[in-house]
Amino acid sequence: MRVAILEDDPAQIDLVTLWLNNSGFNCHVFTYGKEFTRALTRESFDIFLLDWELPDITGADVLQWIRQNVRDATPVIFTTARDREEDIAAMLKAGADDYIVKPLRKMELLARIHAVMRRSRNEKPADDVFEIGEFRVNVESRTVHRHGQQVELTQKGFDLAVFLFRNLSRLLSRGHILENVWGRSSNLNTRTVDTHVSRLRSKLGLVPEHGWRLVAIYQHGYRLEQIHKDEQNDSVNTGIPTPATTT
After folding, report:
1. Which of 11, 34, 157, 206 has the greatest number of CB atoms lying within 10 Å of its CB?
2. What is the pLDDT confidence band of residue 220, given thresholds at 50, 70 and 90?
3. Mind listing the pLDDT tens digit for each residue in 102-123?
4. Is 131:145 a contact under the CB 8 Å cutoff?
5. How far is it, in rounded angstroms, from Cα 66 to Cα 68?
6. What confidence score (pLDDT) does residue 165 get?
7. What are phi and psi of 237, to 5 degrees?
8. Which of these, 163, 174, 157, lies nearest to 122 by C-alpha position?
9. How many Å apart are CA 16 and CA 110, to the nearest integer?
10. Which domains does the chain have, with CATH numbers?
11. CA distance 49 to 75
């Protein structure tokens, strides 16, 4: 999972990132609320960990911004020293998914993250074999069949296909895709993502006339969607993909 951490205490940052990195998470740390919200205009994450007391704006302000501007219902966990019942209730009512009072404890933090992810739509069943539309994907044998016919994909093409299918309808930033398909420390140019997405769209037929839309979102990333038959017919008849934000 890709985690965005909003925290201004260096000791807390070191501790939490150590716990999460050792547990297989990809951590991105921000110390200012405005820096954090700017990043969210171009990046996507699986979960947010927010402190309340920040140097510029409050975690409560950040939570409000997230719920008003982030289309995907990305889970939010508050990690803060504020332990008044009124504060906890206010943040849960405002859209936080959980609230942990500091000092944090490793096993509790990890358990709460996984519990929140289980409840959210972001955690997909990690089945070795799954079907979606006309596709059958076998993760163990690393094969994709379309209408019963195997489609030959490269190693990274297959990994990209699995990541997109398991995040259907989510807006995924190029950085998010790079980390999950090419690895946590990948230094590749984001144009690598564009090239592989273009090839995958062609190989799997992820186009409106086949009931799919794999579109680039300006200055952000990609979204894979299944489209309804009436929407599919409109796209074929007009030759114009929707929505208007596609490039």
Report:
1. 206
2. confident
3. 999 999 999 999 999 988 764 5
4. no
5. 5
6. 95
7. -70, -40
8. 163
9. 10
10. 2-119 (3.40.50.2300), 129-238 (1.10.10.10)
11. 9
